[in-house]
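Hi all, long-time lurker, first post. I run a small reading group and we've been trying to get comfortable going from sequence to structure in the token notation. Rather than ask abstract questions, I figured I'd post a concrete chain and ask someone more experienced to write out its structure so we can walk through it together at our next meeting. Sequence below, copied exactly:
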Amino acid sequence: MFSAYLELEELVVLADSAMRRDRRSCRTTPDNLSLYLDTAEAQVRADKESGANTNLFRGYEKCRRALLLARAGTDSSMETRTRLALLRYGLDCPQVNYPIFVGNGTRPIHLDLAYPEFKICIEYEGSHHAGQWLNDARRRQMIEDAGWKYIQVTKLDIGDEAGEEALARRVAERIQEVTGKTVQLTTRQTIRQVSDARKLRRIPLYKRLNVEPLLPIIPITPRE
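-- Answer (accepted) --
Happy to help. Here is the structure in token form:
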């Protein structure tokens, strides 16, 4: 099983990839993954009660931690890595594919990552051909015209400590611009530290800053 040898971050990326927003690529749901782990735990418990010497599969605890950090509805693995990079420095988990309506459009635009409470979006930009670049430029203009602060992320921002810390600081600076309040980052944490359930249930940043959210947050209950 992958959990036996994958690093925790890679396991989160794998879980996200199995729960894509595109229905053609979606293979499971958070509830199904949680049920699988619950069933495995219940089976081992029943076996032990009957006298059998059985144990949970290798990587079980890692799967539990990965499930706390996984999110359904992503579009790419780099979006997942961007989200995890922000968590490493103590920022709240951004919303995934947050829907907004811009202009006279009747269909929503889905922001890669968003802090709707601050109207800040983080968009991952891959390598595109010229036509796609023009579409992305138009999309950015519409998002900014709707009053959102736009942070562009590329592969140069993800994958090393310096780039990821700089990205987290950019996000913190935008939050400070919106709220007028200082946002303190933490030192870089491991993904295991980030997956601590107590940290994931902490008071949201906007409440700690004592500001009113600009837009509603879609509630997500971490699954253990």
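A couple of things your group might point at:
The chain has a mean pLDDT of 92.
Residues 30-49 form the longest helix (20 residues).
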